Model the fold of this input.
Amino acid sequence: MAGEFSDALRDRNEITVTVTGRVSGRDISHVVWFVTGDGTVRLLPVRGADTGWFRNLRASQRLRLSAGETSVTVPATIVTDPARVGG
Done:
């Protein structure tokens, strides 16, 4: 993850996630909780796989993460294995 973006994550517990709508094709943004570790940002949809932004992410596999004025567009790795999700 880019150093500038990593710096922007300090002292935050929420970031803005922007995904492309799977039907509309428009950018849709949501504020979500996150955790970091090993240079990775992990997001957990509160309502699970039925969360709209998560369904959109599964369709596009890319998202923009924004922390304050700093943003980064990254490919997504979707984890559905319960053993890895719970870890």
